[in-house]
Amino acid sequence: GAERYMQGILIGASSMAKGNLAVVENRLHYIGTDGKEYYIQGTPIGSATLYPDAHPETTSVDADVQRTDVAETWAQIIAGAGTLANDYATAIDCTRFGYIEAPPQSGWDDLGRGFVLFDGSILPSNPVVTSAELVLYSATKYDGGGWLPNVNIYNVFANYPASNIAIVAGDFIGIGTTPYCDNPIAYADWNIIDGANTFTLNAAGRAMITSGIIKIGIRNANYDVAGVEPSPSHNSAYVRCWSAEKGGTLRPKLIINYVPGPYSLNPPGNIAVVETRIHYVATNWYEMYLQGALV
User: Do the Cβ atoms of 21 and 282 come closer than 8 Å?
Assistant: First the structure.
């Protein structure tokens, strides 16, 4: 929002009245929930790309957590306590489940979920997040039961995980059912090895982004979250992504675009962009506005 002055001609204004006073203005432009357009004087948009820490962690973590070595109904296994966690492997089970047929112990014997945490301390306090994406890179997938499990991202309950730098079995029940993305990624669409799988965060997902620790849970949507039992079959399925331990460009990453706060969108809106325009007084003494930048 700082003022700039320059003697000269405005870019793209050759057919317009010229002027010697020019101010670069930035404003937030969004569509409110009432369907109307709104403008708020703002500052240029910022961006940040965050990654979880690899082991040994210092501020954030990624991991999978499972309920395994049981033989239960579907209702029992999705509501049960975790029995195993792994925060140091090179891959994360975004979802996994398996069924065992070994009477009298037949039942679902394995269910997995994932966590990705990010340190948001490089963000300004109270940012207005205009867009955000979580990108997970495929490690592998398998569907022996023909169940076609999809994957989505969800809220993490308060007080979970127990630590921001370590995942334990008890964190299994800490992932909720509020989706942070409106479009789960179908099994068929989960990219092949090393391919990017992008979740575009919805309003709930953008709202939870903070300058503190950002927590995202990963679950299967069409069976685990929905509470719908897959057709029992002595088989297993999983969808995996690379973890921070993989390193390099294949780590999970959270890409955030934001306007530094504090700004209040009233009424709230789901679409927001920053517009830059030049405001100047022309030689005919009219105030003029031009989308663009100074020479």
Answer: no
Comparing CA positions, the residue from 242, 100, 105, 110 lying closest to residue 172 is 110
Q: In angstroms, rounded to a whole number, what is the distance separating the alpha carbons of residues 92 and 174?
A: 17
Residues 6+ apart with CB under 8 A from 55: 87, 88, 244, 245
| Cβ(35)–Cβ(65) below 8 Å | no
3-state secondary structure of 206: helix
pLDDT in tens, 45-89: 689 999 999 999 999 999 999 999 999 999 999 999 999 999 999
Is 152 within 8 Å of 197 (Cβ atoms)? no
Task: Answer whether 0.85 is exceeded by the pTM.
Answer: no
Q: How would you list the strands of the sheet with 37-41, edge to edge?
A: 37-41, 21-32, 269-281, 287-291
Scan for tokens 């008890």, then name that residue. Answer: 170
Cα 132 to Cα 44: distance, rounded to the nearest angstrom: 16
Query: What is the 3-class SS of 130-189, one letter each residue?
Result: EEEEEEEEEEEEEECCCCCCCEEEEEECCCCCCCCCCCCHHHHHHEEEEECECCCECHHH
Q: Which pair of structure tokens corresponds to residue 174?
A: 């800490």
118: left (phi over 0), alpha (psi -120 to 50) or beta: beta
- Rounded CA gap, 222 and 241, in Å? 19
